[in-house]
Design a protein that fits this description.
Elements: H1 8-26, E1 60-68, E2 71-82, E3 93-96, H2 99-104, H3 115-119, H4 126-129, E4 134-138, E5 143-147, E6 172-184, E7 187-200, E8 203-216, E9 221-237, E10 242-251, E11 259-268, E12 284-288, E13 292-298, E14 301-308, E15 311-315, E16 327-333, E17 338-343, E18 357-367, E19 377-386, E20 391-400, E21 403-413, E22 419-430, E23 436-450, E24 455-465, H5 472-475, E25 481-482, E26 487-489, E27 495-497, E28 503-504, E29 509-520, E30 526-536, E31 543-553, E32 558-567, E33 576-586, E34 601-610, E35 615-625, E36 631-640, E37 644-655, E38 658-667, E39 672-686, E40 689-693, E41 700-704, E42 726-729, E43 738-741, E44 751-753, E45 757-760, E46 767-771, E47 774-776, E48 778-786, E49 789-790, E50 796-799, E51 804-807, E52 813-819, E53 822-828, E54 836-842, E55 853-858
Parallel strand pairs: 1-5, 41-46, 48-55
Antiparallel strand pairs: 1-2, 2-3, 4-5, 6-7, 6-39, 7-8, 8-9, 9-10, 10-11, 11-18, 12-15, 13-14, 13-16, 16-17, 18-19, 19-20, 20-21, 21-22, 22-23, 23-24, 24-29, 25-28, 26-27, 29-30, 30-31, 31-32, 32-33, 33-34, 34-35, 35-36, 36-37, 37-38, 38-39, 39-40, 41-42, 43-45, 44-47, 48-49, 48-52, 50-51, ...
């Protein structure tokens, strides 16, 4: 190549003349860019690039993030059409939007002039009706900005998402499973809970079933039973901001005590409100003297069951079937000893925002899991209304054949002094012995958070009932008392009488006091205390439960101390005092900075003593392994004053297909041995097949990455796509914007995802699909020749079966991804039949793991 040299003055003069000529042409002709300037090779061919001279992008459907006045409103697929405007930002595209969609976003379309004509238009120019408005589209960012004066925007609450953007999900079925089993020399037992259902057209069919199996070897007792706890169908009623339930379910109500029913329920859904417009399962604490099984019942059904090691325990992941109603807790120890106590469970003061109306209507049969109760037909209705000055009024009624009750109440937000509510219930009852009874019950609830002192009074409540007051649950009993509870066997084959089946309606409730306080004392740790006191008419003594605890995390260890006392009029329960102390030390602290160590290892020790003289001491190691800490282990050794030496070895693993664990233990010096095991997970059956995953929530997201296998879901714990590109993201937020993204670093060499982020707004109980556009196949840098010459610069190259396209660069080179093992490429550089050709390609098996393959092809 010959380099030309010019004198500097001559060069400056030519630049000035060219600038003047160019400015003159700009006044009379459109911009023109000569693509030959990109090439420095003589004789190179140039394709017809007239389609790109004006900077246009292709019109069509694009999924974009829509911002209104710089606030993200929604993620939506819109149709874009070509405009006369050409710039590098919008690509000459403008969105096609109608008045209905603008109205859903909160724009006051009904105030626009000539609204009837406007409603018939599929694409409107909002600037025609609001001159101060503007609509700007950024093609590269896929972002649509709409600037609209606030006077034309409806005043919606912060976090408002229009119902038109709510996703009712796909047609699919699901199954949640949990299995907990035990095997010992004396007996074998299995507990299985299945939560299943399917969604179709906005209707959600649900079933919750349990299975209990027990085989007692020494007494030759074999039992197995399936129990269908709940069967119902539900549907979201969007205009009423409510949910409709038909079938067997539970009333979740803070006004009356919760109860199961078979019938129809229509109730206001707080989840449909924006997060800024929305206003409790309690923490269950206790102390286990030895390895124990904890069973929690509500309304006669088992809602939670797990195994714990000796020492203090805390259950903070309880998902109850109801928002109120006492929790019946049974702690069954290794050697047959039983602790039994009640955790009162009721809602906080019933305060609503000004103007908010909440209703709950139920009609059907009373239903419980207790065979000692009848199933009377009843109606229950409640209504709450938020008034000015922080006042809420509420009321309700319960009507059954042998029961009539009415309730009136008021709540007040007292600002700095907390929140308070008071209500009174009057009830007329016909008891199982056919006696008539009537009485009143008065309830006072209070809550307060002293942030400046680090104190939280979670709930403080007091209820006083007169001697003749009964609730519907009590009236449903078939007899006045049950003093001979059912004989049962624990997981180790020891017999016991189930205290939860004991009742005596002559011991009517009189007064109840409950309080839970948490106090943060800064660097000195934290304290918690709770008290539950229930007095009775005619009972020999009252029921009391007190707990106090302290915890602090020091530099190299964590210390906790706790005390618990339980006492009740139950003839099978004795007063018990228990104290416990535990210390945990991270061994990583001795290996330098803790963040340098991937896996945590802890040494822990604990001491437990109760008023029966039983002492227990143990020590051991526990920790986690794996990049996502998906594997955990626990090894313990100790001694109990009554049962002798004991030991525990446990392991648990979490995978993308669920979790599994095993626990081997021995006690009494090795005489009693047992093996516990558990499996849990979920699956979804959909149009693409069956996808397995971790335990599902009420609302879930199904990722469809179209063949992108083993790709990690961003901000998840061990969730990866399967071999077909599917994955399940459980526990999505109802009626909220859920961001789902795939980690680009986890993709293999043959996987590309064009849009790795999706924003979804699922409705309650929905299974929504997050579809990602992928290119699965080979990546190649291809050199193309036609008649022994490189194909023209700017030619389009397409692989039609995979819908892959690109543009040819210098020396006939083009980059393509997502190619099959073999196929045909179509190359075009003009509009005539002679200005295109085809080239066949084929990849060798040895190149399957190569990042980018280089190919040279002749185009025919």
């Amino acid at each position: 190549m010959v380099k030309l040299k010019f004198p500097r003055k001559t060069l400056y003069l030519n630049i000035i003349l060219c600038s003047l000529a160019l400015s003159k042409n700009l006044a009379y002709a459109q911009d023109y860019f000569n693509p030959a300037l990109l090439l420095n090779t003589e004789g190179s061919n140039i394709a017809d690039l007239s389609n790109f001279e004006e900077g246009y992008q292709l019109p069509g459907n694009y999924r974009v993030n829509v911002y209104i006045n710089d606030n993200l409103a929604v993620n939506k697929e819109l149709n874009f059409y070509q405009t006369a405007k050409s710039d590098s930002v919008s690509g000459g595209l403008a969105p096609c939007i109608d008045s209905k969609w603008l109205l859903s976003l909160g724009v006051k379309v009904y105030d626009f002039p000539d609204q009837e004509t406007l409603a018939r238009q599929s694409c409107i120019d909002i600037k025609k009706y609001v001159p101060e408005a503007s609509v700007n589209y950024n093609f590269n960012l896929q972002r649509l900005d709409m600037s609209i004066p606030q006077i034309w925007i409806r005043s919606d609450a912060r976090g408002y998402i229009p119902p038109s953007e709510w996703d009712e999900g796909i047609t699919a079925a699901y199954l949640n499973y949990n299995l907990n089993g035990n095997s010992s020399d004396k007996s074998d037992s299995v507990f299985v809970s299945l939560n299943s259902g399917f969604n179709i057209g906005g209707f959600r069919f649900r079933n919750f079933s349990t299975y209990n199996y027990m085989n007692h070897h020494t007494e030759n007792i074999h039992r197995s039973r399936w129990n269908s706890v709940q069967n119902y169908v539900e549907k979201s009623i969007i205009p009423l901001k409510s949910e409709l339930v038909i079938g067997d379910s539970t009333i979740n109500n803070n006004i009356f005590e919760s109860m199961g029913f078979r019938g129809v329920r229509l109730y206001s859904s707080e989840a449909m409100l924006p997060i800024s417009m929305q206003g409790y399962a309690p923490v269950v604490r206790g102390i286990a003297n030895s390895k124990s099984t904890i069973t929690i019942r509500q309304n006669g059904y088992i809602v939670y069951q797990t195994n714990v090691n000796p020492g203090p325990f805390e259950i903070n992941d309880l998902t109850s079937m109801a928002l109120s109603g006492d929790l019946d807790v049974t702690v069954e120890e290794t050697m047959g000893a039983i602790q039994h106590f009640i955790v009162p469970y009721s809602g906080i003061p019933m305060l609503l925002r000004e103007g908010r109306l909440v209703f709950d209507l139920t009609a059907g049969q009373f239903r419980s899991g207790n065979r000692d109760q009848d199933n009377p037909t009843f109606f229950q209705g409640t209504l709450s209304r938020g008034l000015k000055n922080g006042v809420t009024v509420f009321g309700g009624t319960q009507i059954a054949s042998k029961y009539r009750a009415g309730l009136l109440g008021i709540g007040k937000n007292m600002g700095h002094w907390g929140a308070l509510s008071f209500d009174m219930t009057h009830a007329n009852s016909t008891l199982p012995n056919h006696e008539k009874s009537q009485g009143q019950s008065y309830r006072l609830l209070y809550s307060k958070s002293l942030n400046e002192l680090g104190t939280t009074i979670q709930i403080l409540g007091y209820r006083y009932s007169t001697k003749g007051f009964y609730n519907l649950n009590e009236v449903a009993y078939k007899s006045m008392e049950q003093l001979e509870p059912e004989k049962k066997f624990d997981e180790f084959g020891n017999s016991f009488y189930d205290p939860s089946s004991y009742y005596n309606l002559s011991f009517t409730k009189k007064g109840r006091f409950q309080v839970s306080v948490n106090q943060n004392i800064g660097k000195y740790g934290s304290l918690y205390a709770s008290a539950n006191y229930q007095s009775y008419w005619n009972a020999p003594k009252d029921s009391k439960s007190y707990q106090i605890g302290y915890a602090n995390a020091f530099k190299y260890f964590t210390l906790s101390l706790s005390w618990a006392m339980q006492d009740s009029p139950n003839i099978f329960n004795k007063k018990t005092n228990t104290i416990a102390a535990s210390i945990s030390m991270p061994l990583n602290a001795f290996f330098g900075k803790r963040d340098r160590v991937n896996n945590e290892v802890y040494s822990n020790s604990s001491v437990v003593r109760n008023s029966y003289g039983s002492n227990s001491i143990q020590t051991g190691l526990n920790g986690t392994l794996g990049e996502d800490r998906q594997f955990s282990y626990n090894v313990q050794q100790g001694r109990n004053s009554q049962t002798g030496a004991f030991g525990i070895a446990a392991a648990h693993v979490d995978t993308k297909y669920g979790s599994a664990g095993a626990n081997y233990s021995f006690s009494d010096g090795g005489k009693d041995k047992s093996l516990n095991y558990d499996f849990s997970g979920g699956l979804i059956l959909h149009s693409g097949g069956i996808t397995f995953g971790q335990t599902l929530g009420d609302t879930n997201i199904l990722i469809d990455a179209q063949g992108a296998k083993n790709v990690k879901v961003e901000n998840s714990t061990n969730i990866y796509t399967d071999s077909r590109g599917y994955a399940i993201v459980p526990f999505a937020e109802n009626y909220r914007l859920n961001r789902v993204a795939l980690e680009a670093d986890s993709m293999n060499e043959q996987t590309e995802i064009l849009n790795n982020v999706q924003n979804l707004v699922p409705m309650k109980g929905a299974i929504v699909r997050a579809r990602f556009d992928t290119r699965i196949g080979h990546r190649a840098l291809i050199t193309l020749k036609h008649l022994n010459e490189y194909v023209p610069y700017g030619s389009t190259i397409t692989e039609e079966s995979q819908k892959v396209s690109s543009i040819v660069g210098k020396d006939g080179q083009a980059y393509l991804s997502g190619l099959k093992d073999e196929g045909t490429l179509k190359i075009s550089w003009g509009t005539s039949e002679t200005e295109n050709c085809n080239a066949k390609y084929k990849f060798d098996k040895d190149t399957s793991d190569v990042g980018i393959t280089k190919l040279q092809l002749n185009c025919q």
